Amino acid sequence: MVLFGTQELPCSPFRITVAPAHDSSKVRAEGPGISRTGVQCGCPTHFTVQTRGAGKAPLDVQFGGTAQSGVSDLQIIDNGDYSHTVKYTAMRQGELSVGVTYGGDPIPKSPFPVTVAPPLQLDKVAVQGLNSKVPVGSPQSFSVLSSGAGGQGSVSVLCSGPGRRSVPVSVDAAGPGLHRARFTAAEEGQLRLDVSYDGHPVPGSPFVVDAVMPPDPSKVHAFGPGLHGGVAGSPATFTISTRGAGAGALGLTVEGPREAELECHDNGDGSCSVRYVPPEPGDYSLNILFAGTHVPGSPFRAAVRPRFDATKVRAEGPGLRGGRVGQSAAFAVDCRDAGEAELNIEIRHELGNRPEVRIHDNGDGTYGITYTPARAGAYTVTICYGGVTVPQFPACVTVEPDIDLSAINVYGAGVEPRGE
Question: Is the pTM of the predicted complex or chain greater than 0.70?
Fold first, then answer.
């Protein structure tokens, strides 16, 4: 009631509503220190309290729960902009209740339940099953092991491909201390995987993976003389090219009368050189597999010949003893006991010219040899087998001039018949 002198003023008494000096419902708190999984034992943490529009009142923080006795270093800092920063360190793992009051009244959502996690030990986090090469379009997975690593146990994986394009990755908990990450490379190129545990890079991160095209055995090319045969006891070689065939394991086996030594050398250019030594003559089977599948032409059949011995080659015939100009001369060469090799024969006149030599393979390890000398004189005959000169050669053969007896006439008293 308002009086002027002794009289009450019009509209008196006046009704006035008195509001409280503060309103805790308008206070907001946020930050890792009040996050359900944001606090780690022994590590300082914090959160922020916003009081704008809530009036003036004292801010207070209380702790409860099984881990309350381990809270230390509590600080409430007035930032001077209607906000406060609250800092504390939880020294005991377990459940913690963080109560925030403003002017003695609890703010919204207070008290905040917090789980204090064990101390973080990143050296106990390991990545397993991540291949250095993965095929494009094929789902891949790997594991993150974190048993005994402490912390909140949060695992995240970020993957970027060529051109820093993001590659989707799913991460799922697969058991205590175990997470499974899955991804699929969409294009060929290099991938980068950043693996973190509770926001910290794990040992070895980032990981680099090459995404390659899926294996295509039809694009593998094998070539070389060793695929088709060789000589017993001598190295046989061939080459395998996997360029453009994608990623895949290369498998080689040699099957035959006896086990053959096998060596493979990576040339570093998408090809490899293969060397094997067949110990015995016979048919060998060369199996070449790429990504578990036979490549074109595999298995290859290699016919291995016996090792040759030029000392067991024999040659004989009239053509080695002499001849006449213009008349065909012949002799035979027997290689049946010498193994398989290439037979080469050269016949040369003393003045350098060489008559044509015809070699007829009889199909049984023997050969028929013919030549026709064009001029008289001494000829040198050289026989080589497998590049080795056979015994008793080179040999010298004398060719006589051609004589036509029909053109010779004999006459005179000494050859005339006497009369009786």
Answer: no
